[in-house]
Design goal:
Length: 422
């Protein structure tokens, strides 16, 4: 009895771990929450990549045409296009970090767009708080219980399948917490590898443990089904198969392989509609570098992984939007250690076939002393919820009432002229 009580207590949290699969539920897993039951499914998909640690948007998409850029960053500013380790020309004013050269074909095909000077209306420079607000979608409100991706899921037609939303990482991310179920698998090859619970004797023992438990029985069976479905999707032969501030998120080095595994899972398991990954290593207070260096070492596998993800998704890309975001930007001026400190405005990335791509969106506020936020940071001219709101409305066809449920705060900025979708 003591063993049974211990196992039940461990499973009664919001996550039921089944081998490599963790099934996320609301506080009451028997609540029966669904996502618009009885309606036809929505085949649109969303992948969110979060850069934990505050990636330096001013060197990712560098304002080469702003004379203050080089003045503020004499040791880390990107060189002009055509020079050694120089930026990649985008639109004559902005340049892309050279470590992201894998993404240039997508830019040229108008399947990649950026929203600059984007961010939150909250003034925090705390990684923890800013990441929480970015994932909850309610800046300044720490009481929000769920994440905006979870709320978005509840507004879409279709059943509350445990494989409908998938996170790659060690724990359920804040962004997917809420009433809709989701699954979490480990990063790396271990995430889709057989484990102890795939042994019949062990599985039968857990079946007996939960068969008479009204409260956790369904949770267990759903977790077991999710594990089975994801394992089957990972093993299915595939015609397209190709030979602290980080909050526990891994460095981007393994991202290309995780991107490949995610694409394969999404191709082989069509019920996966949303996915989330987090990458760490972006808190570049020292030795950041310009065209080469610490930031470049993070960006190269990120760019390679994103390019591979779009390629491996294949025909699914016509129904998929990929969002890359970070909690805030970094100071306009480099510090004495050859790095940058916590800032404010940043750049959001969007990839997809239906975007108004090949364009830098948003109003550029400039880097003059009087234009900087608190005299030190890139100002925010586009609220990040405006970007995500357009994804919800244009990509998933949400109406205004549904949008308010996903992003409930009043005063949501909807800047005129921000047209992210064709």
């Amino acid at each position: 009895m003591q063993r049974r009580f211990f196992l039940q207590a461990a499973a009664s949290s919001s996550l039921l771990t089944l081998g490599n699969i963790r099934l996320a539920y609301a506080a009451d897993p028997a609540s029966g929450a669904t996502t618009q039951p009885g309606k036809p499914g929505n085949n649109k998909k969303l992948i969110v990549v979060m850069l934990r640690g505050a990636a330096d948007g001013l060197n990712i998409v560098a304002p080469l045409g702003d004379a203050n850029y080089n003045r503020l960053r004499p040791g880390i500013a990107l060189a002009k296009p055509g020079q050694e380790n120089g930026a990649l020309a985008l639109d004559g004013y902005f340049g892309l970090h050279p470590a992201l050269s894998d993404l240039m074909p997508l830019w040229q095909q108008k399947k990649l767009a950026f929203v600059h000077a984007c961010g939150s209306n909250d003034t925090t420079r705390s990684h923890f708080d800013a990441q929480d607000y970015l994932e909850s979608g309610t800046p300044g409100n720490k009481a929000t219980a769920d994440g905006w991706m979870n709320r978005l899921l509840t507004q879409l037609p279709g059943p509350n399948s445990p494989t409908r939303a998938l996170a790659i990482g060690p724990v359920l991310p804040r962004i997917l917490s809420g009433s809709a179920t989701s699954s979490t698998i480990a990063a790396g090859a271990a995430g889709t590898r057989a484990n102890l619970l795939d042994r019949p004797v062990v599985a039968q023992a857990f079946d007996q443990l939960y068969k008479n438990d009204a409260r956790l029985g369904k949770t267990y069976q759903d977790a077991k089904a999710a594990h089975k479905d994801l394992m089957a999707a990972a093993e299915k032969p595939d015609a397209m198969d190709m030979n602290a501030a980080d909050m526990g998120a891994p460095l981007p080095n393994g991202f290309p392989d995780d991107a490949t595994r995610l694409a394969r899972l999404m191709r082989n398991e069509p019920r996966i509609q949303m996915a989330f990954l987090a990458l760490g290593g972006w808190d570049t207070h020292a030795n950041q570098g310009a065209g080469q260096g610490q930031l470049a070492q993070r960006l190269q596998p990120l760019g390679h992984g994103l390019a591979r993800l779009t390629r491996e998704l294949g025909p699914l890309m016509k129904d998929t939007v990929i969002v890359v975001m970070s909690e805030f930007g970094r100071t306009a001026r480099q510090n004495g250690n050859g790095g940058t400190d916590h800032g404010h405005g940043n750049v959001m990335w969007l990839l997809g076939d239906t975007l108004t791509g090949g364009k830098i969106h948003g109003a550029w506020p400039g880097l003059e002393a009087g234009q900087l936020y608190e005299g030190r940071d890139l100002a925010v001219s586009t609220d990040f919820r405006s970007v995500l709101g357009q994804v919800a409305q244009k990509h998933f066809a949400l109406d205004e009432t549904q949008l308010e449920r996903v992003f409930p705060q009043k005063g949501l900025i909807k800047p005129a002229g921000l047209q992210l979708f064709a």
